[in-house]
Amino acid sequence: MKTSVLLWLLLAISVVSTHAQTRTVKGKVTDAHDGQPIPLATVRVAGTNKGTTTDQQGNFSISVEAGQSLQVSSVGYSPVSIAVTGQANVSITLGTDQNVLNEYIATGYTNTNRRTRTSAVGEVTAEDLENKNYVDINQALQGQTPGVFIGGNSGMPGAIQTVRIRGIGSISAGSSPLYVVDGVIIDGRDLNSAGSIGVQSNDLLANLNPNDVETITVLKDASATALYGSRGANGVIVITTKKGKSGVSTFGINAQYGKTEMTRGHAALMTPAEALHYDRDLLAINGTSQADIDAQFPMSLLDNAFDWSKAGWRRGTNQVIGVTGSGGTEKAKYYASGGYEKVDGPMIGTGMKRYSVMSNITSKVNNQIDLALNLNLSYTDYNSAGGGNFYSSPILGAYFVSPFQSPYKPDGSMYTGNETAFKAASKNNFLYSYSRNTNKLNNFRGLGGLTVSYTFTDWLKISEKVNMDLVYGYAHLFTDPTTHDGYNSAEPLKSGDIFNQLVRNTTLTNQLSASGTIPIATDHTLNYIALMEYDRFSNTSFGAEGIGLVSGKLKVLDVTSTPQDVNGNGTDYTFVSYLGQLNYNYKGRYTLNATYRNDGSSRFGVNKRFGNFYSVGASWILIDEPFLQSQKVLSDLRLRGSYGLTGNADFDNFVATALYAYNTSYNGAPGNAPSTIGNKDLTWEKNKAANIGLEAAVLNNRLKLTFDIYKRITNGLLMNTPVSSTSGFTQQQANVGRVQNKGIEAMLTSTNVKFNGFEWQTELNFSLNRNKILELYGGQDITGSISIQRVGYHVTSWYMARWAGVDPENGNPLWLTADNKTTTSLNAANKVIAGNAEPRYIGSLTNRFSYKGIGLSFMFYGVTGNKVLNQTRVLSDADGVYFGYNYSRQQGQNYWRQPGDIAERPKPKKGGNNSANSATSTRFLEDGQFLRLKDVTLSYNLPARWLRHAKIAKAYVFATGTNLITWTGYTGWDPEQDIAANEAFRYPPSKTVSLGLNVNF
Amino acid sequence: MRNTIIYIFLLLSFTACNDKLTLSPAVQLPTEDALTDIAGVKAGISGMYAGMRSVNYYGRNFLVIPELAADNVYLSATNSNRFGSTFRITWLTSDPDITSLWNQAYAVMLRANNIINSIPALTDGTEAEKNDALGQALFVRALTHFDLLRIFSQPYAIGGGSAPGIPVMTKFEVGSPARNTVEEVYTQIINDLTQAKSLLGTDAGNPYNANAYAVSALLARVYLYKGDNANAITEAAAVINSNEYAIVAAKDLPEFYNTPGTSEDIFTLMVLSTESLGSDDVGRIYLKPGYGDIRVSPDIVNVFDTADARYKAYIFPFSGSPTEYENEKFYGQDGISGLYSPKILRISEQYLVRAEANAKLGNYAAAIEDINAIRANRNQADLINIPDADVLANVLLERRKELMFEGHRYFDLLRNKQDIVRTFCDDPLELNTPACTYPATSPTVIAPIPQREIDVNKNIKQNQGY
Fold first, then answer.
1. Is the pLDDT of residue A577 over 60?
2. pLDDT tens-digit readout, A470-484
3. Which residues, listed in sequence order, are joined to residue A842 by a DSSP beta bridge?
4. Which residue of chain A has the CA closest to B7?
5. Among A298, A577, A890, B264, which residue is least crowded by beta carbons within 10 Å?
6. Cβ contact (<8 Å) for A572 and B23?
């Protein structure tokens, strides 16, 4: 089959004849900066589809007719147009232009032409990623391209970011996009499974230095994602790192320093005086005599009062230092960088450090052989001081201690928390424990690959790529023997605890590809890539725990007296894939794109081990049509559409296999037993997606619009389905269920003012996504305590009893029953769907001003159409459930005191009022909409004449601020949530301001 | 030449990698690899028994349900919301206890089936090892079928052999099996046990794994339930006459249930102290501290002679409510409150089986002799001069006293067509019930097939009345 296609193509080539009588022009294209020839520059005859590229020496020859002009372009240079007026030799110089985008957009395995592409892709370039206050490039993507939701599950530096592209495509399998770095699929998950061991999970992408990234491409529709077959359904994020450029040698240093604070939104604790007033009032309302109140809560308590709300927080710092060097010749190019970043988070005891080095080297051995080496080593060190919802964490800990409890004893030393006199629900003095206990996580990542390419002709290049991704994660949990968590009162000699865990992940990838451009005839171009890929992931871990520490100073397992636990585990998966893509263009205006991928994976059942995925796309550049040549309004008009089938294979490695587990025993003898029913037919979730896109520009590209409308339906959702118990199991994972996402994305870019060196640009991003479950097993709801999956509704639907306020007569909490009557019993109330966690609308607005080297940009980002569960209030606004400890300020507002009060909060009682604080009612479900000044950056390019004497090519100073102002009605700590939108003592995102300097020599 | 090199390179790279797609996890083995050698099968045997320890089966519920659905105990008005439907005998088809019993018994049955079906393909192991493994697995397969049949089908004596039984499973299958008849299920059970008896050894030293005596003892019980009294006598006699077992002496009663592996034990499901289910251990549903939901009914207290060693050893005033009675049979093993290794088969029951079968066949003297063998060890005088017509009643009374709280009473009543009659009824101390008498022939005294099974298995028929 393949052979016959090639033969046909060869035939097609041989019958092509040159027909027009023209003359030949020869020329050379060079770099304006250094005079070096520019190879592979595109030379086209304007108004036709005739074109060629320059050779290695920058030479070209092309036939033209009289009066025609040549357009010359190359990646990274401003295009130039010259009229050919009789001369036989022309010399053309191209200048680099920072503002000119590449002609191609990286799609991982290959790239696609910006103008003729058939796919919906979003792009973020280095200037949006560099010099920001984000440690994780996922964060930097927020608001940069429509159709992408990004939210952190914690504000801890380096915490996991939830990313969803075009909605949520799955229920029980993963919905995160696939990550591709320099053409290789990498695992972006929380490989340390740190969540299970009490260390805040971290995002592996935080290991990548954002300053090393050249572009990030977000692949959204099937035309782009079908290249990734069974793993492309939830979108793909393609990261391309910086490469050296020939002829331009640079050496640069960058430094940044900033201050960071937590965002606290409308959340606040009562002051000790307010808390005392509340405690006394609660007793009074409940009939306690004045004398008893004075005895229990005397005003003198305020003498020992302490403001715990701010104790756990500080003004953190962030620091970045980096060096980069790049350059090269035609034969060899390099990019090398080293970076250091240190963030001391706004919560005491939290922070991260990152060390990274990267080198990208390419070498042209001869006209046929190219070599490319990418190497990226990084090491990160996180200290999480316990997740937010641990008793020892300053977030929950501040609520669980009495406001009339000083952390210091009368002699000035600190309470450990274990003292009987220490008034705290959790007996934890976090100010004592945070510096003594450690929750550390280190990640070492070595990501690198070698590519060898052999170019036979323009139409055949063979490339072989071998890539390794090694991630070592080391968790170190140390609990000091004197702290509350470490002290063992029953057996004091067993106080203190050390837990270590080492996780090793390796991914080996082998890619072999053939690609090229097949010259068919004038007006016809055909590009192809055929690729085979083998991808093997393997994970091994072991951990050990010991207790019994004499001192808090020695922190290795050898000093523990009693070994506790040793564990080890491992898992792996493989993918074997074949893929091909054909891209055909006619007259430069009409493009057809077809992609096919065959994936086999160890994750799938033996009966469904291989799957086929495909997409077709088309684009039409209307603006180049003759009938639009005469009009002056439109400067760009393009239409594109795509349809395809991709898959989602993001689920556990071995659910398809029937398994026996060895975790049981009988009468001391080890045993085994069936643990997984398996399903030989289990396979990927199938995602069918259609996309129509429009790109238009008016006023000579001053106003540009990109508009996409999409619909994707994921079939065969991986779900637990009930089976007859006579099988010995009750449930089996099977492919049932369907979910739909449809929406629109718009991006409007406008150059508002361009006058005398002053420029003002505005960019508006808007996305709307509607998610709906179309089918579930047997049409049955999947009900959780506060959520539900129901046909016809959003995947992230909240399912709660309806809060109906407070009975004015007696201050009792009320809920609504099915017939909309009030009830005082939460159990009698009926649950309804009460909104969804995923925002329906996401938008951002960026303005950029520049004038003579001064730049100012600010970005607003906001979401709406979602509900956030403010679960912190279950404890902090709980009508007296945690009586005598710290309360949220809102608990003291508008509560019922006496009959007739129209109050927002029920009558406060010790121990709470009839489950009024239950999270299963809509009482704490709040509107999640917000608008935030996400980013402000002011920069100044120092004038070259100042720098010349210091031999500095370029110097750039900037100030940047993140999350500076937020507008929201949400009463919790911060409205910006991950996709679960359930805030319970979460480390909030930070507000950061920093100053920086970049110098290039 | 160059082309050849490239061709070879391509060929190497594109070589089909199907074998690379077959992986298995680090802590689990694919089912087809788990039981391929005798070591794996032996582990399977352990896993099979371990499955029986589940709280939903012999870990607690299967010992409690047949007591609460009868007249030995009652559910306190103040309870932890457990077993209410069982006590009231008003099961919903979605009843969680009934559903999880069904699920767990079939899960254990799968473990047995996988062993049975893997033995012919074993590549190692001696004949003796294979026979031992196969015999134990057949025993457990028979036991699980029998337990399900007892709960979900009308007794043989009431519904007859053609009544709907339960689906017989002899291999792993995700399907929609219909219910076999009661007769067919009995045939399967008896065949399995008969085969197991020929495979297993007669070393009575280890009561924690089924041996040939355990098989005979279960077979005796099965025959008795089926009404095949002659065979019941044969099998019970085989166990009794082996002289491997002795009825526990009166003085040893107080610690008897806290001590696994006495001379009385024929088959005991061992629960090590490290395997305690905590508050879900059997004893804790009877005791305070613990749930303390289930109290001893005056109905059984009143049948005891106060000198009876069993009365003295096991029935006490309820802790914190002295007018009520507390069951202290399962007060704890290895110092762990409420922990109990269920004595699923013990020698006293075999005497009772033989006595009941003899009484039903008219061998009254033999019946009384067996009863007296037990009474001699319970500080009770021998029964003498019992009229023939009263022998069976005396046998059943002795059975009630001997086996109380061990999960027999409800089955014993129904299979003898005796109604469930609670004299102590409608008392404010207990959970209110819709009736004080439940006729043995009423279809709804039998538990419903779980709704989830009805939902997923189109061939299964619900019991009458649901």
1. yes
2. 999 998 989 999 998
3. A767, A863
4. A462
5. A298
6. yes
pLDDT tens digits, A650-695: 888 888 889 999 989 999 999 999 999 999 999 999 999 999 999 9
- Residues 72-111 (B) with a CB less than 8 A from some CB of A: 102-103, 106-107, 109-111
B450·A725 Cβ contact <8 A: yes
Are B20 and A536 in contact (CB < 8 Å)?
Answer: yes
- Cα–Cα distance measured from residue B58 to residue B269, given in angstroms and rounded to the nearest whole number: 8
Residue whose token pair is 């028994």: B49
Query: Measured on CA atoms in the order B244, B246, B252, B254, is the torsion positive or negative?
Result: positive
For B25, which of A532, A659, A667 is closest by C-beta distance?
A659
CB-CB under 8 Å, A662 with B23: no
Give residue B10's pLDDT.
Answer: 56
Q: Residue A447: exposed, middle, or buried by beta-carbon count in 10 A (0-12, 13-18, 19+)?
A: buried
Single pTM value for the model:
0.84
Q: How far, in whole angstroms, is CA A78 from its chain's centroid?
A: 32
Sheet holding B315-318, edge to edge: B73-75, B294-296, B321-327, B315-318
DSSP state of A307: -
User: Mind telling me how many Å the CA of B299 is from chain A's nearest CA?
Assistant: 37
**pLDDT tens profile B19-29:** 777 887 887 88
Task: Determine which helix (DSSP H) or strand (DSSP E) holds A513, and give its type and residue range.
Answer: strand A497-521
Cα(A722)–Cα(B104) distance, integer angstroms: 15
Average pLDDT, chain A: 88
Question: H or E segment at A511?
Answer: strand A497-521
Choice among A846-855, B308-317, B367-376 with the minimum mean pLDDT: A846-855
Instruction: Please give the pLDDT value at position A10.
Output: 40
Q: Nearest-CA distance from B262 to chain A in Å?
A: 16
Cβ of A723 and B26 within 8 Å?
no
B10: contact with A, CB 8 A cutoff: yes
- C-alpha closest to that of B459 among B157, B190, B167, B259: B167
Give contacts of B 257-316 with A, CB under 8 A. 270, 272
Using alpha carbons, select from A31, A42, A27 the residue that is nearest to residue A73. Answer: A42
pLDDT at A9: 41
Return the pLDDT at A14: 39
Taking only the tens place, the pLDDT of each residue in A504-535 is: 999 999 999 999 998 888 889 899 999 999 99
- Tell whether A337 lies on the interface with B, counting CB pairs under 8 A: no
For A599, the 3-state DSSP assignment is strand
Q: Which residues contact A408 (CB under 8 A, 6 or more apart)?
A: A414, A415
CA contacts within 13 A on the Cβ side of B161: 9
What six digits make up the tokens of A438?
């450690």
- Rounded Cα distance between A376 and B383, Å, is 91
Q: Concatenated DSSP letters for A60-106?
A: EEEEE-TT-EEEEE-TTB--EEEE--S-SEEEEEE-B-TTSPPSEEE
A 763-792 residues with CB < 8 A to B: 778
What residues contact residue A269 under an 8 Å CB cut-off, 6+ apart?
A: A275, A307, A308, A309, A398, A399, A403, A876, A886, A887, A888, A889
Residues recorded for chain B: 466
HSE-CB for A506 with a 13 A CA cutoff: 5
